């Protein structure tokens, strides 16, 4: 049955996050020929970003601009999005399973007295029903979930559901809605970005991750080189973060970021279960480790038994010659 589905978009530093486009694609499946409506909150003129959501498949986009929405707060964004939900009465809501999505959607679900399927990696229409797949037991298994009654509310994991082709021929309405934002209980004093190159790990297509085997902060240099030639970014195990070789913002795993890049290269990482929880669903995994018995080889598609300080510079040289 066709539905009206709302996509909560996310912008950062003037650009939409890719997961917004992926959420629009998921919403198109959920809507089953119904209407896909986007909502985008922020400060200043958001019309160009709203238009971009149209090019990726939203039929209508409502922008809510307010100085109180310049940086994310759950109070501010929940008020703004709730007003749009009240206007539009969607039968489905989709958002990215990002830090913002993880914070905002449970709050909205509780206000709407709705269930929420979080962290979906696949959305398919099966026999007239919409079926979501999501990881359980830290990614060791997957379950299928279906909402048979009420609002279809879900967050989708970045990098899993392909976005639709951008098409400038698509037309749609971008309208601005005024919302007065009150009672924000959180004061954002400053936003400190720790990631060196600004690429968001959860959306990166290529990640070169270092573990305790890199042995020092300088030991990350060959990994930076490899990430650069591959157009990727650098991540880390908690072992490397705990040892002070890099910032915790790079940590991947159960208590760090969950990533699903096209290519994950693990260098000097043993493959502890808590690390695997954050990266084992990567599309192609390459492991470089001195220890042939290292657990990381059990999840790797390609394994290189060797010293990362020999292997990584050779890889960089080879790739540069391609
Ligand atoms: P190690 O286990 O010490 O492995 C280092 C590896 O480097 C070894 O396999 C070694 O053979 C190899 N090596 C050494 N020198 C070289 C070389 N020159 N060339 C090639 N290989 C080399 N961990 C996470 O990563 N993310 C998490 O989110 C996380 N959350 C946790 C939550 C909890 C509650 C707990 C208890 C633990 C958590 N951990 C997490 C920690 C996890 O259990 C491991 O301790 C950690 O992942 C180990 O990091 P590592 O693989 O870098 O280090």
Automatic annotation (TrEMBL):
Binds 1 FAD per dimer. This is Electron transfer flavoprotein subunit alpha/FixB family protein. It comes from Halobacillus salinus. Belongs to the ETF alpha-subunit/FixB family. GO terms for biological process: fatty acid beta-oxidation using acyl-CoA dehydrogenase. The lineage of its organism: Bacteria, Bacillati, Bacillota, Bacilli, Bacillales. Its cofactor is FAD. FAD binds at residues 212, 237-238, 251-255, 268-275, 289. Keywords: Electron transport, FAD, Flavoprotein, Transport.
